[in-house]
Amino acid sequence: MIQLRGITKRFGDYPALHGIDLDVAPGEFIALLGPSGSGKTTLLRIIAGLEFQDGGSVLLGGEDVSSLPVARRHVGFVFQHYALFRHMTVADNVAFGLSVRRGKDRLPKVARLARAEELLRLVQLEGLGSRYPGQLSGGQRQRVALARALAIEPRLLLLDEPFGALDAKVRKDLRRWLRDLHKQMGLTSIFVTHDQEEALELADRVVVMNQGRIEQIGAPDAVYMNPETPFVSHFVGETNRLPTTSGEIHFRPHEITLAPDGAEALLVDNVFRKGAVWRAEGLLAGSGQFVELDLPSSGEAPRLGETIRFNPHRARMFTADGAQTQGESR
Amino acid sequence: MSGRSPTTEGPLARALLIAAALGFLGFFLLLPLLTVFSEALRQGAGPFLDALHTADALAAIRLTLLIAAISVPLNVAFGIAASWAITKFQFPGKALLITLIDLPFSVSPVVSGLIFVLLFGANGLFGAWLAEHDLKIIFAVPGIVLATVFITFPFVARELIPLMLEQGKDDEEAAISLGANGWQTFWHVTLPNTAGACSMVCCCATRAPWASLARSRSSRAICGARPTRCRSISRFSTTSTISSAPSRSPLSLRCSRW
């Protein structure tokens, strides 16, 4: 159980976080999603104790750890660039957290290495314990980093852009693997990402952040389907915006119905296949607004210069101050 | 298909560039080096080896080894501490510290020698106090150690700071998040990460006392009866300023003529 209460942080004159409140239930998998500079990594580092907040408090399992240094918080932290100790073997890396223990908690070397081997099996790298990090691929390194973080039996796992340095294919595999591992272990986990697809695929709940504030917290489906602010609407998923006198109407490219007498007319100036659909782009007749539409690929591809008439069948209305006036319209 | 890569120059340009580099090296590095050895061995290997066995030469070599044995560990310790502080922590006055570390490189060796004379010399700041307590710093081993430490201090920090900056703080943060304390982090993570650079730096820092050995006229022993050539390849430096004095130590005996 994690409780964040009014966390604020400044870097010099730059306000990084303005009063963050967040509760995470045991076993939850949470994504902190936002563009760079949104404060998501700072928040993660504050939870870990790698950074201290200027105001507010961090409670782990009901205990106020606000002033505890990272070494005494028992949290596992996984870095974007792995941060493996390059002069140590994989097994020594994994066992590092155990070998720096002093006093009665200290395990004998045989037990430490046995534990490391067990963890390497968990991350499907058994038998690679005697290699050095430099001899592993990016995906393998990140799994070693994860095993190393799990070795200290953390009460919480924090991952900072864990897939950021990997290529697309490996990223996808590792993502699925991490989701399964989380299901299997049930360890409360928070990861930071700027990739909405990653957040929607992995997380139980997504925390969308922007400019040091939380914009919305919700299940992936809720965040995607019912964005509460214009920012969430255009950051999570693709969104078309239609300016009106009182604000903006937002709708997704697929949230349309084609109709010969539709209220909107798109003059197509680019068409390409986007997976299972045709994507047509162009400007709206009248307002001149740029719009993207998804059309069923069972039909013929739209032609350049063609006019497509449609009605948004599901849209959200935001007033100029960002408030949502209608959940759904039309 | 071999063919030359689109980013390399033609064979003529390559040959010219390599020739220019080798020519420069040969003229400014190899030629003087060869001259030194040919002059030293002019009368054969026998007199050369004999010259090495003279009391003067042995004393100079002993002194140099002693200076290196004292100044290198000191500099490695200070240098690692300084680069660790600079690269892994934020504190006020960091820019000033970086400038100060570079100072010995930018100050002329003669001036830095003078600084120590002004501090510890007979009329220096601490001169009277030192004389009272019968302590000798200048024109004695402690002075040479001080001067060597001063001029070699930047070697270690300069080598380590860019390396540590490039490595970033991730490894250290990973270590402390796994429960390591500051000392364990430094000993098991930071130090091994910089081990390669450290050993190179030790060589650099050891080189300096040897260079001063050559400068402070002990090369006279090697060069035999050709002090003029000796003079032309050596120059005044911190160490020679501070060790040249009309006293009767074997080193300063040679230095006194300057």
Key attributes of the depicted protein:
A: 330 residues; Rossmann fold; six-stranded mixed sheet; elongated; B: mainly alpha; MetI-like fold; ATP hydrolysis activity (chain A); transport (chain A); ABC-type sulfate transporter activity (chain A); ATP binding (chain A); ATP-binding (chain A)
The coarse overall form of chain B would be flat
Q: Please summarize the sheet with the most strands of chain B.
A: none
Continuous helix count of chain A = 8
CATH top level of the largest domain in chain A is Alpha Beta
Strand order across the largest sheet of chain A: 6-7-8-3-9-10
Task: Work out the strand percent of chain A.
Answer: 25-35%
- Per CATH, the class of the largest domain in chain B reads Mainly Alpha
Structural class of chain B: mainly alpha
Indicate the low-confidence ranges of chain A by residue numbers. none
**What helical percentage do the residues of chain A reach?**
25-40%
CATH fold group of the largest domain in chain B: MetI-like fold
Helix content of chain B: over 70%
Task: Please give the alpha-carbon distance between the first and last residues of chain A.
Answer: 41 Å
In angstroms, what separates the terminal alpha carbons of chain B? 65 Å
Category from helices, strands and their pairing of chain A: alpha+beta
Within CATH, the superfamily of the largest domain in chain B carries the name: MetI-like
Descriptive notes:
The complex is a heterodimer of chains A (330) and B (258). With 330 residues, chain A is α+β, with helices and mostly antiparallel strands. Helix content of chain A is 25%, strand content 35%. Chain A has two domains: 2-225, P-loop containing nucleotide triphosphate hydrolases (Rossmann fold, 3-Layer(aba) Sandwich); 240-329, no CATH class. Chain A has eight helices and 19 strands. In chain A, the strands form four sheets. In chain A, strands 6-7-8-3-9-10 form a six-stranded mixed β-sheet, with helices on both faces. Chain A has a five-stranded antiparallel β-sheet with strand order 13-17-14-15-16, with no helix packed on it. A four-stranded antiparallel β-sheet of chain A has the order 2-1-4-5, with helices on one face. In chain A, strand 9 and strand 10 form a beta hairpin. In chain A, helix 2 (90-99) crosses helix 3, helix 2 runs parallel beside helix 4 (138-151) and helix 3 (109-122) crosses helix 4 (138-151). Chain B has 258 residues and is mostly helical. Chain B has helices spanning 11-40, 45-52, 55-88, 94-106, 109-120, 127-132, 141-167, 170-177, 182-193, 195-223, 227-233, 238-243, 250-255. In chain B, helix 7 runs antiparallel to helix 10 (195-223) and helix 10 packs antiparallel against helix 11 (227-233). The termini of chain B are far apart. In chain B, 33% of the residues are buried. At the A-B interface, strand 6 and helix 4 of A face helix 8 and helix 9 of B. Chain A: InterPro entries: AAA+_ATPase, ABC_SmlMolc_Importer, ABC_transporter-like_ATP-bd, ABC_transporter-like_CS, P-loop_NTPase, Sulph_transpt1. Chain A: This is Sulfate ABC transporter ATP-binding protein. Chain A: Residues 2-236 form the ABC transporter domain. Chain A: It comes from Novosphingobium fuchskuhlense.
